[in-house]
Structure of Dihydrofolate synthetase:
Amino acid sequence: MIELGLSRISRLLQQTPLSWKAIHIAGTNGKGSISAYLSHLLSAGGVRCGRFTSPHLIDRWDCITIGEDVVQESLFRQIEARVKLRDQTLGIGASEFELLTATAFEIFNHERVDIGVVEVGMGGRLDATNILSDVLVSVIAKIGLDHQSLLGDTIEQITREKAGILKAGVPCVVDGTNSIEVIRTLDKRIRELGIESNFVRPETQSPLLGRLFATLDLQPHQQANMSCAVSALKLALDRFRPEINVDMLLPQLSSVVWPGRLQKITLGPLVSREEPVLLDGAHNAQSAEVLGQYVDRKLRTEHKNVTWVIAASTGKDLSSLFQNIIRTGDKVAVTAFGPVDGMPWVKPADTEEVASCAQSISETGLVQTFGCDVSAAIEWACHEANGGPLVIAGSLYLASDVLRLLREAQKSS
């Protein structure tokens, strides 16, 4: 289960002073992309960098990277065992995420990283990652409605929780494309703390970054995330390595890959389809709106309808999620992701409930349920798409299952 609070993580790390500085990132959407941009640029600049994001994608340890490489499984398991033993010995009763956070932070110590790029797990104020004290810059990405049962019913309440990572004396970068309610709430907290702030919008960035946006054909949300990352990097390096020229590093952004977000994949040898498929972990209304706009603009040009493979987590507002991506006449394969390693509380939404929602949106389109058989859902969707546009979305955990299935199929082929 999810247990917010800092008391348990404080006890877990009480005897483990953190030997590195941090860049701390909160938000509803975009945190992972900003983290990827930052760690890539830091590594390109010769800074030894660790990155901790959540959830993991395929393996439980792939949420921790050192210098752009996933941490070795043997090291992960060794330090995780040490953290778990401490938890048991002291009778702390830490949550799975708290154990993972402590493991990541101790791996950063072990690997002697200079800077750790750390993504908030949930919220901010009471998130385990908010134990960080030596922070170079705080980043607030795009904020929307999600996890209301834990963070609050309104956008202002959720924003206040996420603003909990802001600290006196630590400058911050904010995605300036946020709603006016979010901006006002954040600005109030920033004024209370009296800290330096930078509200970033893509159109006000340097001409150099603007040319990069055009060259990479980035979507608006990608431009906003990249702008936040670059602004945060400049602030961090001003305080840590002012001799590094950030502008010289910007071309490196063209090689950043963030799996599970607008990712084009081929499904062979899993199925016979040769045309690429779009894989995206959009799992809330805000990220689904971004995906829907991308699909409408890029995939519906030659074909009126799109075929989908979808799943969702329990507790999600299915209507606001799927009405942003599914259109009348679309065909939909509904499935459920499998157990999530290290996150036993995460459960898939009932497939019949998801199918009913999809049918009400698609209206005339064909909707088929496949239970937890993701492979069968993909096979059906490929057949129905018949070479036309096909998108897999609705959950990061579904994206994980698909990538895992592909890896296994490739190993056995």
Summary: The domain at 263-412 is CATH 3.90.190.20 (Protein-Tyrosine Phosphatase; Chain A).
